[in-house]
Specification:
single chain, 599 residues, mainly beta, Jelly Rolls, 6 domains, five-stranded mixed β-sheet, 45 strands, repeat
């Protein structure tokens, strides 16, 4: 919120311009007000979390300028439940709302539901006082998009959010015209997202409402398609005819069942070329929307699609010496429209090394996308690189034992004439994860490559550190100098030997040595990565760390005798946990002894 305390600037020559935005990118903001003179404007509240002020003066300015206070206010939250609906109104409704009002509500539906906004009453000052509705698949306002911006006395049609989140902003000007403007009254409802579960049936048909007859205006339907784990959704359109550039089918794909983590894949309208679309993972969403002005003269029956699924192609590197090859279809001949996903698995304790020997795809249309993961589930992987064009990327080493390769080509392939593209070829092999096995009270030194000289670009090394049972790993950095924001030391910790179960603890970058780091268990992994040549640091020396062990705090061993049996206990705080010796004991009994503070 911006409050001007004082304003003295030369009228029509010097200005204070205020911009507001939902994202931190200045190029995406909008101008809110431009001020000049001596009259202080009303308080200004930004639409989102960002506001910019620009002060400009001419060559002969001699006024005092301005003084303003900045503060912030919370977005009003409305959480919907499946039990009852909610109501929302403009301030003072059904009486006249105040001038200079600016309120933003955030409406959240339960997971698996969408928000339905139904206006029952709507009268605002035309072109002066506005209601703006935003929708989003994620809870962050800066990821939302504007759905409507309305003023006047026409009640808007029902609005159904794309996901579980909807924002409503009411803003009024500073001078009300004659007449009564009572604002708006609306009801907030829930709409469930129907799920088409192909784990129960191999195929299904999906059509727009009333197909093959004309669909209705102001339709907004969202379907979720789910297939078995390890498979991908295939949507094949057998008929498609909507009002061009007004009514749409939008496809979203995801690696997890959460819609807010999905990405938009394709937006279709009119009479496009029929074909298939394959999701990256086991989930796909289809949204059908029609506007309020469908032409009656032209029959638009909508769409019909067949839903099915295909498997992810598996490549297993059986042993450390194994090498595998992956190519685009027909390589080295030209490829056709396609969407293929391979999963590559390295032996336990190894990582996948991917080496491009050829890359020749239509730039900005056809892609080879690489994902990496520590577990075999695609939904828990992260995207590593997205490659298109002619230049072969540098080698890629996966973080763990799993790597995915996705090749996608656009349906408009070779639309530019006689140019042909041959696709790609990669070689896959295994890289061992070096291990550092520590003994009690033993230390080891670990450095980045070439330390203290500058390390190379595009470096990716992973070390595994193992402490004795019952002890923890301590990492002490004596030197740390990496390219901030580009080159990282990432530390994972685990209580078992399995990297799949480890969790990321720290991601370090820059030139300040971090504090000592002590693991939760006996296992630590350190990964050092440096960026490509464009972001390489020619003067960064990398890092040096001492790796050692520390006992679990407060632990000591105690022997307790019960009759003829001796029990070994580990004191963790105040409770003594007793463990019997190995057989030949016929009966195992466990006793707990609570120790007082002075014992």
């Amino acid at each position: 919120m911006l409050h001007f305390v004082d304003l003295h600037i030369k009228d029509d020559l010097d200005y204070v311009t205020v911009y507001e935005g939902r994202t931190p990118i200045f190029e995406e903001d909008v101008q809110r007000i431009r001020i000049s003179g001596f009259d202080r404007p009303p308080n200004i509240t930004s639409v989102g979390s960002y506001l910019w002020l620009q002060f400009t003066s001419d060559a002969e300015s001699n006024d005092k300028g301005f003084n303003a206070l900045l503060s912030y206010i919370h977005i009003r939250d409305i959480f919907l439940t499946i039990v009852e609906a909610a109501n929302i109104t403009s301030p003072n409704y059904p009486n006249q709302y105040d001038d200079n009002a600016d309120i933003l509500w955030k409406v959240t539906a339960p997971s698996g539901y969408r928000v339905v906004l139904h206006f029952k009453y709507f009268i605002t000052q035309q072109h002066k006082d506005n209601v703006t509705v935003f929708e989003g698949r994620a809870p962050e306002f800066d990821k939302s998009v504007i759905r409507i911006h309305e003023s006047g006395s026409t009640i808007p049609s029902n609005i159904t959010s794309v996901g579980s989140y909807l924002w409503l902003r009411f803003i009024s000007g500073g001078q009300s015209m004659l007449g009564t403007h009572t604002g708006f009254s609306a009801q907030l409802l829930l709409a469930d997202i129907p799920v088409i579960d192909l784990t129960l049936t191999e195929t299904a048909n999906l059509t727009s409402p009333q197909f093959p007859n004309q669909y209705d205006n102001n339709t907004d339907v969202l379907w979720k398609v789910k297939v078995p784990t390890g498979y991908r959704v295939v949507v094949t359109f057998v008929h498609f005819n909507t009002e061009n550039e007004n009514d749409f089918v939008t496809l979203f794909e995801g690696r997890s069942p959460d819609f807010k983590e999905s990405t938009e894949r394709k937006k279709l309208s009119g009479s496009p070329r029929l074909g298939s679309f394959t999701s990256i993972g086991s989930y796909m969403w289809l949204r059908f929307t029609s506007d309020g002005g469908n032409s009656i003269a032209l029959l638009s029956p909508g769409f019909e699609a067949m839903l099915s699924y295909i498997t992810i192609r598996e490549i297993t590197l059986e042993n450390p010496e194994s090498v595998a090859e992956v190519t685009s279809p027909n390589f080295p001949q030209e490829y056709n429209y396609d969407d293929i996903l391979w999963r590559v698995k390295a032996p336990a304790g190894y990582r996948v090394l991917l080496h491009f020997t050829a890359l020749d795809t239509e730039p900005e249309y056809d892609f080879v996308t690489i994902y990496e993961g520590r577990v075999p589930d695609l939904e828990r992987s992260t995207r590593r690189s997205r490659n298109s064009g002619y230049n072969s990327p540098l080698n890629i080493t996966s973080i763990g034992s799993f790597l995915w390769i996705r090749f996608t080509s656009d349906q408009n392939y070779q639309a530019n004439g006689n140019i042909t593209y041959t696709g790609f070829r990669v070689l896959l092999s295994s890289v061992r994860i070096p291990g550092i096995l520590l003994m009690t009270s033993e230390t080891a030194n670990l450095t980045s490559p070439k330390f203290p000289r500058s390390y190379d670009s595009n470096t990716d090394i992973l070390w595994k550190v193992i402490a004795p049972s019952g002890e923890r790993v301590m990492v002490t950095f004596s030197a740390f100098d990496t390219e901030s924001g580009y080159d990282f030391v990432t530390i994972y910790e685990g209580q078992t030997n399995d990297f799949e179960e480890a969790v990321e603890r720290y991601k370090l970058s820059g030139s300040s040595p971090p504090d000592n780091i002590t693991s939760i268990g006996s296992y630590v992994w350190l990964r050092f990565t440096s960026a490509g040549d464009l972001q390489s640091c020619t003067s960064c020396s990398g890092f040096m760390a001492m790796i050692g062990t520390v006992p679990i705090r407060g632990e000591h061993r105690t022997t307790v005798e019960f009759g003829k049996s001796r029990y070994i206990g580990t004191n963790m705080g105040k409770m003594l946990r007793l463990v019997p010796p190995p057989p030949p004991l016929m009966m195992i009994q466990t006793y707990s002894i609570y120790l007082s503070q002075d014992r």
